[in-house]
Amino acid sequence: MPSEKDGIMIILSSPSGAGKTTLVKKLSEKDNFEISISHTTRQPRSSETQNQDYFFVNETDFKRLISNEEFLEYAKVFNNFYGTTRTPVIDKLNKGKNVLFDIDWQGADQIKNKKLDYKLITFFILPPSKETLFQRLSKRHMNDNLIVEERMKQFERDVLHWINYDYVVINDDLDNCFSKINSLIDAEIFDGSKDYDLNFIRNHINKLTS
Ligand code: 5GP
Residue 117 belongs to a domain with what CATH number? Predict the structure, then answer.
């Protein structure tokens, strides 16, 4: 039975290339914050470690987890399956840990719709401009034009989901963005005042989508 002492759930989503994974890792260094490790059918990147960055599984195993109803949420993203298993999350929350989710908008929608008894804060991270996003994606995908083009098109679709999040934060500078998210989380936990300008965000979205 959830209680006051339980942890809270914090979701960070963003279009690919906005720098969310780095932010989640930085937030997990906060006292009492832990990252929810997802399952995925995607191949590990050379920098990634099994059971640490993801539980890398094959499609058969993933589908078994689906039919056993072990997922709190799951989705197909860029042709691979990604999902969050329920038990580790609930265990952490019941122990008073705050759980960070690096998941896409589909997963965020599913968790929101579950209306669990744990406090939930959702953040959508955006790049400062389309040009910066293009540069970041080109660097990450080593100028593979096809992938970069596909991610830029996906961006146009993903950005529209900003409206379903509690806060939209622009990742112009990592430290700056981290500190904004950090203060908003603290304000939510301790019921403090929130430094958040929705009109500024609306204007930024208009620029990104024009
Ligand atoms: P990547 O393959 O670059 O690690 O992640 C691709 C996308 O999948 C990112 O937007 C990431 O947030 C999302 N993602 C990672 N894990 C999960 C998950 O468990 N559920 C959902 N719905 N999305 C996830």
Answer: 3.40.50.300
